[in-house]
Amino acid sequence: MTRGVIEAVLPRALYRVRLEDGVEITASLASKARQVTVKLIPGDGVLIELSPYDPTRGRIKERLT
């Protein structure tokens, strides 16, 4: 898992996230974060699990405070 910052909120519950190494990916909320109804806005720090199949996609596991 890696850390990132929300850059933009996209349609269909997707987010544009910039990772610590500067790479931008598209991420969605993981099911546990969706159950808790986490509200994310640009500038929020998040913990990301990258997809093993597509390095430009990932899941937001939790919001960092």
Structural key phrases:
single chain, 65 residues, mainly beta, OB fold (Dihydrolipoamide Acetyltransferase, E2P), five-stranded mixed barrel, 1 helix
Topology summary:
Layout: E1 2-10, E2 14-19, E3 24-29, H1 31-35, E4 45-50, E5 57-64
Walk me through what this model shows.
Helix content is 8%, strand content 54%. With 65 residues, it is mainly β. The chain has a single domain (2-64), classed as OB fold (Dihydrolipoamide Acetyltransferase, E2P) (Beta Barrel), CATH 2.40.50. It has a 5-stranded mixed β-barrel with strand order 1-2-3-5-4.
Which structural class do the helices and strands define?
A: mainly beta
Cα(first) to Cα(last) distance is 17 Å
Bulk shape: globular
Radius of gyration: 10 Å
- What count of helical segments does DSSP give? 1
- CATH structural class: Mainly Beta
CATH topology: OB fold (Dihydrolipoamide Acetyltransferase, E2P)
Low-confidence stretches: none
Mean pLDDT equals 91
**Which strands sit side by side, in order, in the main sheet?**
1-2-3-5-4
Quick overview of this protein structure:
The chain has one helix at residues 31-35; strands at residues 2-10, 14-19, 24-29, 45-50, 57-64. The chain has 65 residues and is mostly beta strands.
